[in-house]
Amino acid sequence: MDAWFMDGTRGDVTGPSGPGTVPAGLSGGARAHRRHAGQQALSRGGITPVNRIALLGCRADVLAGYLQALGLLRVVATQVDPRARLHWRGDVAVLDTVLTEDDLFTWLVRRYVPAPIVSPWNSGSGFAGNGKSRTAEESLAAVRDLDDDRFRPLREAILGSERVVAEGRRRGWGGAKDELWAKDRKIDVIRLCRSVLSDDALPWLDVAVTLTLDDLAFNALAGTGGNFGRQDLSATYYDRLLRLMGPKAKVSESRAWAEAALLGREDVAYLRDTVGQYDPGRAGGIHSAADERGEGFANPWSFVLVMEGTLLFASAAVRRNGAARAGEAKPFFTRSTPLGHGSAAEAESVKGEQWVPLWDQPAGAGEVAHLIGEGRAQWRRRQATSGLEFALALASLGVDRGLTGFHRFVIAERLGQNPLAIHAGRIAVAVRPEEGLLRRPYTWLEQVRRAGPTSAVAAALRRVEREAFAVAAGDGPNALARFVIEFGRLHELVGRSGQTRSRVSPYEPKERPDWLAALECLDDGREELRLAAGFAGLCDDPATTGPGIRGLLTRAGGGAWQAAPGSGVDLFGSTLARALAEAHRIRVIKAQDDRPRLNGEDGTARGVQTAFDFGQRLPIGLIDRFVTDPSRDGLVADFLRGLLTLGCATRTKSAWPRSEHAVPGWAVSLLIPFFGTGDLTVRVRDRRSGDRRLHQVRLAPRPDWVSRLIAGGVDAVAADTLLRLRLAGLELRVPALPASRVDGTRLAAALLLLTGQKDREGSLTRICVAEVPQLETLQDRDSQGALA
User: Fold this and answer.
1) Read out DSSP for 208-265?
2) 107, 120 contact by CB (below 8 A)
3) What is the pLDDT of residues 142-187, one digit of tens each?
4) Which of 196, 209, 198 is closest to 163 using CA atoms?
5) Residue 581 CB: number of other CB atoms within 10 A?
6) What would the mean pLDDT of 192-218 be, rounded to a whole number?
7) Helix, strand, coil percentages in the chain from 3-state DSSP, rounded to 5
8) Distances (CA, A) of 332 to 374, 393, 406
9) What DSSP string describes 409-462?
10) pLDDT at 493
11) CA dihedral in degrees (696, 702, 707, 710; nearest 10)?
């Protein structure tokens, strides 16, 4: 019979009995236009409509529901409606087909042809014939003896499997006692199955057990070669088929189960039997019912369609080559990363993670089979091998176009040793610029992981990976900020661990990322981050990633670990000011040593330029708040440790304010003009003529000022500063300043920071009788980078 499909073309609808056979009541029949709730007709003028059926029982956040939807698409497309399409509306599957809802259930119950699923390599599949698996043997015999044309492909597969068993035993591959096969002959048995079984039976073989290049690989979707512990999936499949389609099956009961499985009806009595890993919510267990049998709530149609759906997870590499590497044999399957979900546990026995794709545009069975079979999820130009890498692949569009997201299932052993597919969340496919900032650090994390880290380092590594996963999952700048902090903590811990640091070199950034731009929308800690970026970006040459200030504040110096930071003080919240002040003191010593000295010159008499040439320019109000408020030191130290490790740009493209309308304390206003680069220009009054004129000064601190500040001599340094201003030809507003209450160590630390030229000149006018010039010829010199 010709049928019209969704694209308006005409073609054959092939049913289980051959081309042209359409059961009564299907599209084109007497009830072709009957629809039910949740079903939408897609009419094309006078053409037979295509029906859109919302499969409310097939939800993607339950592995069984997802596989049911794929299984339904597969059987409908291959047996009755080749143009059937499936897509996801949120987490609900939607089927587009010429079948009405009523037709669909009628066809399932009366005309569905089961897939030829056989597992002759398993002892519990019913082929051993030794009475050890009596239920499986009875179900297998019942299916084989059925006089029903719908079971013909399955019967032929069973007969082929019996030939495999007979030939294997003839070759002496049989196992000892009750075992069907000798353990060292399993690979030979699989090869024999591939050569004897029909092509229709090979998809299940490719899913359950795959010949890799050097061993056997098992897809966790099918357990261990097609069984979950003592439950052989093929034997359960036969039992469910007999309940639905066998001689004693009731059509009304079978239809009710079908409607429950696909439409989500909950007014249908389920079987109390084994469910398997696919639907943990119905798996049963202790206290799941009053009788304490611990059995699950099984829907026969759900299990049958799940098995049909798993057949789409045969790897394309296996189909092409007959063998594959272990990873290639498991589409969208990775090793587990115990992160990103509430029930994650490091010590839990986990087989891996199965990721399943979602798409919002209708796709046919062939397209879905190709998509899943290829299993493309690439990050850094290679296939993702862990849950974390898979999430990062989604954040970099490393999957096929048209996919909107993936659901993640962790296959973990719970309820004894039973594997369960635990739902671990959904991640949308979207470009996340933050992902690019994780690529190089991730390489270093791999080195730490391979180094056999201590328990403390391993715990810190997990915290870093947790935040990296959160970034990939779309948690935004807050997750990225936590990543910066945890990466810095891990790096410092590795530097302290003698065992790990002997195997792992310090992280060396190849560039200076603009973290302020990346974290521009950070909710909390913005000022702390900016202060940290102000310190971390200090350097004399932005073309290199070192030495800058990193070696003074961390154990990483010159590509090798140091026994201690160059300042001699470890960087914590409680030691932040002291570590920075000591770094400043050492910077002064180096600057003094590098400066040429005249014979007989007093080295402390002349000023020495200690400011870094490059770095973020911060508002003077922010610098003053750092001097007066130590309450934020912990977060500043955390950010600073991470930014020093990861590298930090000397300028930012973000819209962070570069100036503030704030009046700093007199200590900051007095000293800031001396700690910077470039000349300062102010407008002063000529003492003789009274005219206003521009006055250019170059101010530099005496080499002993930082040490004196650390020692608490703020007032003495202030007096010296006033003297140097007079010597520079500037008139002071007051002859003396009141005693300072500023912490000298914090002030010495803050003077490492760079501020804009306007802020320095403005500070100078608050201490001296002068004005900031407003001439158009003076360009805005509050730019970032080196100043002439």
Assistant:
1) HEEEBSSSEEE-GGGBTTTEETTEEHHHHHHHHHHHHHSTT--HHHHHHHHHHHHH--
2) no
3) 999 999 999 999 999 999 999 999 999 999 999 887 789 998 898 9
4) 196
5) 26
6) 88
7) 40, 15, 40
8) 9, 11, 10
9) EEEEEETTTEEEEEEEEEEE----GGGGGGHHHHHHHHHHHHT---HHHHHHHH
10) 96
11) -30
Instruction: Collect all residues with Cβ–Cβ distance below 8 Å to 728 and sequence separation of at least 6.
Output: 697, 699
Residue 105 CA to residue 101 CA, distance in Å, equals 7
Q: What are phi and psi of 514, to 5 degrees?
A: -90, 85
Query: 278-298 pLDDT, tens per residue?
Result: 777 665 444 444 444 445 678
Nearest CA to 75 among 300, 301, 314? Answer: 301
Distance CA 685, CA 377 (A): 71
C-beta atoms surrounding 282 within 10 Å: 17
Would you put residue 663 in left (φ > 0), alpha (ψ -120 to 50) or beta? Answer: beta
Does the pLDDT at position 400 exceed 80?
A: yes
What residues pair up with 561 in beta bridges, in sequence order? 556
Going by the DSSP 8-state scheme, the letter that residue 783 receives in this structure is -
| CA nearest to 704, candidates 687, 717, 715, 693 | 717
User: Secondary structure of 114-180 in the HEC alphabet?
Assistant: CCCCCCCCCHHHCCCCCCCCHHHHHHHHHHHCCCCHHHHHHHHHHHHHHHHHHHHHHCCCECCCCCC
Q: With H, G, I as helix, E, B as strand and everything else as coil, classify residue 529.
A: helix
CA distance 700 to 12: 89
Q: What one-letter code names the amino acid at 175?
A: G
Rounded to 10°, the helix 633-646/477-496 angle is: 80
Residue 316 region by backbone torsions, left for phi larger than 0, else alpha for psi between -120 and 50, else beta:
alpha
Checking if the pLDDT of 117 tops 90, the result is: yes
Give the pLDDT confidence of 296-317 residue by residue, as tens digits. 678 999 999 999 999 998 865 4
For residue 397, what are the contacts with CB-CB under 8 A and spacing of at least 6?
A: 429, 430, 431
For residue range 339-357, what is the model confidence (pLDDT) as tens digits? Answer: 776 666 666 778 889 999 9
Cα–Cα distance for residue pair 18/20, rounded to 1 Å? 6
Neighbours of 484 (CB within 10 A): 28
Residue 565 is classified by DSSP as: -
- Position 14 scores a pLDDT of 35
C-alpha span between 310 and 312 (Å, rounded): 5
**What pTM, to 2 d.p., does this model score?**
0.84
**pLDDT above 90 (res 73):** yes
Residues paired with residue 50 on neighbouring β-strands, in sequence order: 42
Strand partners, 97: 51
Rounded mean pLDDT of 484-510?
A: 94
Q: Kindly indicate the confidence band of residue 328, based on its pLDDT and cuts at 50, 70 and 90.
A: low
Write the Ramachandran bin of 8: left for phi over 0, alpha for psi from -120 to 50, otherwise beta: left
Supply the Cα-derived Rg of the chain in whole angstroms.
Answer: 37
Does residue 571 register a pLDDT over 60?
A: yes
Q: How far apart are CA 317 and CA 335, in angstroms?
A: 19
The torsion angle over the Cα atoms of residues 665, 666, 668 and 670, rounded to 10 degrees, is 160
The whole-angstrom separation of Cα 482 and Cα 174 is 57
pLDDT, mean of residues 468-483: 95
Residue 766 has which token pair?
Answer: 């608050």
Cα maximum dimension of the chain: 122
pLDDT score of 636 more than 70: yes
